[in-house]
Design brief:
Length: 164
């Protein structure tokens, strides 16, 4: 049973895919809810949403053409405790094949590495696709990844999806 639900529907611009729910997110039942997590802030700052959404409003994200899913939907915890068997790349692929968003954006390199099956991941647009869906890698918004934080990939994605 997933810790948090995926929020998906056909016709989305971007589906954001993280790894596993944090302890805080699992406790409150909302993704990216940790006090140091920048996810909801950067969605607003980069222009994906017209205001900063509260984590508890996550079910409304499709109103902005956005969706949410996770690579390790049945686990709780930071990336450093996750094992390869915790990830479900086939499940994510099936969801993306079904809903066909314009872009699947990985929130952090670990999610992308587990999905793509390779370690050499750069931020930004990837050469692979899932059907018509482009793949994009973003910096992690987790407070635990603060030293790697860079807004640039988020703004690049926003610019990319604003093009027709």
């Amino acid at each position: 049973m997933p810790v948090l639900p995926s929020i998906l529907e056909p016709g989305l611009k971007v589906v954001f895919c993280g790894t596993a729910a944090s302890t805080r997110s699992a406790a409150v039942g909302a993704p990216y809810a940790g006090p140091g997590n920048r996810f909801w802030d950067i969605l607003y700052t980069a222009g994906f949403t017209p205001r900063r959404l509260d984590p508890l409003e996550f079910r409304t994200i499709t109103a902005y053409g956005l969706g949410l899913t996770g690579m390790a939907p049945n686990r709780v915890g930071n990336d450093d405790i996750l094992r390869p068997e915790d990830f479900d790349p086939a499940g994510v692929r099936a969801k993306i094949e079904q809903f066909q968003p314009r872009v699947l954006a990985f929130v952090g390199k670990r999610a992308a590495q587990e999905f793509l099956g390779r370690k050499d991941i750069a931020y930004g647009l990837q050469p692979e696709r899932v059907g018509p869906t482009e793949l994009f890698v973003l910096t992690s918004t987790s407070g635990a990844a603060r030293r790697y934080w860079d807004e640039a990939p988020w703004h690049a994605l926003a610019a990319h999806v604003s093009k027709p």
